[in-house]
## 1
Amino acid sequence: MLARFNRNTYLMIMISIQVGGLWAAHFKMKHMRARPGQVYPSLNPMIPTPRHPSYPSGHAIQAFLTKMTVGTAVPAMFDALHNLAERIAVNRERARVHYPSDTQASRDCVEAVYRVLTRVEGFAEISAAVTEEFRGIERLGIVPDSRHSRK
């Protein structure tokens, strides 16, 4: 049997990815920072080096913004989403396609981006619908205990 599809949660994640991607693209074009492997070719990045600029990290802002949008709507998931967002961000550094400061810039700006997003018409309704989709999740015991999550 397939799990129930949480349409509003999917929509919230897609909003986070799109808004985060647009935010990152704007600042990437503004700063035009070369990737680590472009500056130091001997680093041999573990994945193909993206052709767009490095700063800030787009994957990081998308992950951090998803943590904020879904985690605020479903507080029981916030710590698990935080840990996942950090892993996504840091793994891009480990793959040698981002500098730590790329990740930090995204981390530093996520709350401001989230505040703007919360003022968009319809956002509060989607957030409430996400909360409703996960009503009672704490009782199911399926949300990872953040004390035992990998950092």
## 2
Amino acid sequence: MKTRSMVAVAALVLVAAASWTITLEETPMKVTFLSNPITDKLNLPFSEAVRVGDLLYLSGQLGNTPGTLTLMPGGIGPETRQTMENIKAALERHGSSMDRVVKCTVFLADMKDWPAMNEAYRSYFGKMPPARSTIGTSGLALGARVEIECIAAI
């Protein structure tokens, strides 16, 4: 009897699932390529951010002093803090903020820097940090120790 009930429930679930129809209207999303007048002078081959609908895709940020290609000295901690400050400034420049970040990808030149990077990174997000991936690399632009890209809601 128990087996028949389980089969009947499974059949009902399949019928219910088969009768659901989800219709998605195709609406063209506006795509806006965003720049920064300060970094435009550096003639880099990418946009600072791209807005698609209500999402902001921020290009990878390094721990460079704004407007220069000079990395913050002092190792992974100061470099990560500068990277996060650069992210914060870019988000604010384009209508978002740190509390609207939904996903970050961290690239580390050396995975041994993971604990120190985490210490600096953690201080920029409250009790609800965004989803995150961390990837070890064999090198980063300008000899950086860390690069972080983000996706944020606007």
## 3
Amino acid sequence: MYLLDKISSSKIDFTEEKHIAYILEKLVGDFMHPFYQDHSKVRAGTLTDTEQNMNQNKISIECIYRDIFLWCVLTYRLDMAKIFLSQMTTRICSALIASKILKAFIVYAPDQAAREELNKKADEFQTYAIDFVHCAYENDKHLACELVMRQIDVYGGVTCLQMAFVADNKRFLYEDTCHALLTNIWYDKVDPVQEQNKLILNLFTLGISQFFISMYERYYYNNYSKLKHKQQVFFLNSNSILH
């Protein structure tokens, strides 16, 4: 708690939302919007009443875990924070935020030993985030990229990729998921490997294969939006890693 006392001259009260918002703005950044608001409006237009109620219940539980997790990190109860982290569905972003908070504490550390300890603990949470996203990437590469770039409502709309950049988590950014995502962004959402394979195939078939490739892509993209919506609804109602 002595590190929190150095952030603000006034006494920190965790029962005041404005105090928590101030602390997070100082330690994480002002790009994180206030997240003490109703999140049920985000997907209200795409879900039925039953699905909305289930989704709202899950979000409420996740917000409780989020608040306790942040309290544990801010008060340096890291072993307890790891327990709640394992129960969260937004565990990738949560681990990255914990890493960022601990790195921000380094500025207020009294000596070199404390700075090294904080950096070590921040690296541990980065490792947890890497393990989580690696498991997601092994399961489904496309959905893993979506997890990294998806805005997370319970944390004010931030993304995992954004938190990794802000926290300077280079090892996380070196992961295959981030590489694939950044490569696709660089090529304007076009997979360079897939385009290279198409080019080689067209050279061998004198362009005839492109006709069949175009037919397949047209059929695939017409059905992709429907499949994507079903997957989003499924993952919202599951207990797997969402973010």
